[in-house]
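Lab intake sheet, docking and co-folding queue.

SAMPLE TYPE: protein with bound small molecule
LIGAND NAME: zinc ion
LIGAND FORMAT: SMILES
REQUESTED OUTPUT: full 3D complex as structure tokens
PRIORITY: normal
SUBMITTED BY: R.K., bench team

The fields below were copied directly from the construct record.
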Amino acid sequence: MTTIEQPHATQCNRCAAVFKATGQRCTAIAVTGRRNCLRHGGASTGPRTEAGKRRCAAARTVHGQDTIAMRQERSLGSARVAVLESIGFAIGLLRGNKTRGRRPNQMNEVFPELQAMFQKMILERAKHSTG
Ligand SMILES: [Zn+2]
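RESULT FIELD (auto-filled):
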């Protein structure tokens, strides 16, 4: 928090919010005793009830649009798609461009029996081609 100093004026703190679009700091004056201006949550009291505080802690949201459970489910979903895609390309069912980018973290945790079956099939195929 920086302090705006003007001659012959009272000192006040500047809002700590940063604009996502421009990367610049908000120039508004912070609410007394708070980090932010009124527009950036300076008047917010946060969760007040015990249930609300527990819910907020459990959700662990960054911006309030999703929860840790939702992120987990989405991560598992993309891992399922990635596993099915890799098997599809390996058996010749899919052609063309593969999905670009880093593979999902949880690929080892989805469809374990399918992946084991696929590994066995690959090994047998390699045995047949060499022997
Ligand atoms: Zn602000």
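REVIEWER NOTE: Residues 46 and 73 are 27 Å apart (CA to CA).
SIGN-OFF: pending second check by T.M.
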